[in-house]
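Need residues for this backbone.
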């Protein structure tokens, strides 16, 4: 698997990968209206472009270099809080799940966060998303929960998870 640092020219690809992965990831959890709303707002060209313009926010495309296929992407932000990287987005297309790519992506993220000087990675995961079990298997633990109003009558009902990068 290869990690390609995303640039402005990759915005439509990120949007397409998000749409493909969200249908399978959230169709059992969120209403079609909420999925559409979140994709339109959180994955708009303007939103992603703004992220790419920020110094500490990075997107990486995940690619199977043997088949020349994009598998998904991750978006994260160094120094979101003191010594903390926030994983904002990690999505794989349905065909890529269960093949170890998510684990490789989280290992890549750990290395990137440590190189940036952060000591912790945080993320939010929907309370009903089975991805929570995957994160726990990779050493993440729930440290809080929250309900976040995202507008248009929708909320994100999430667990807040963390992984310490400190050597024990």
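Answer:
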């Amino acid at each position: 698997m290869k990690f390609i640092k995303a640039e402005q020219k990759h915005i439509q690809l990120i949007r397409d990968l998000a749409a493909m992965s969200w249908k399978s990831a959230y169709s059992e959890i969120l209403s079609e209206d909420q999925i559409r709303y979140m994709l339109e707002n959180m994955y708009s060209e303007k939103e992603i472009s703004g992220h790419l313009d920020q110094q500490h926010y990075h997107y990486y495309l995940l690619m199977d270099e043997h088949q020349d296929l994009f598998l998904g992407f991750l978006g994260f932000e160094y120094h979101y809080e003191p010594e903390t990287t926030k994983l904002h987005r990690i999505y794989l297309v349905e065909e890529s799940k269960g093949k170890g790519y998510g684990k490789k992506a989280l290992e890549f993220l750990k290395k990137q966060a440590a190189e940036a000087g952060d000591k912790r990675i945080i993320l939010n995961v929907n309370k009903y998303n089975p991805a929570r079990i995957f994160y726990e298997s990779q050493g993440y633990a729930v440290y809080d929960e929250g309900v976040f109003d995202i507008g248009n009558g929708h909320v994100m009902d999430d667990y807040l998870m963390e992984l310490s990068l400190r050597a024990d």
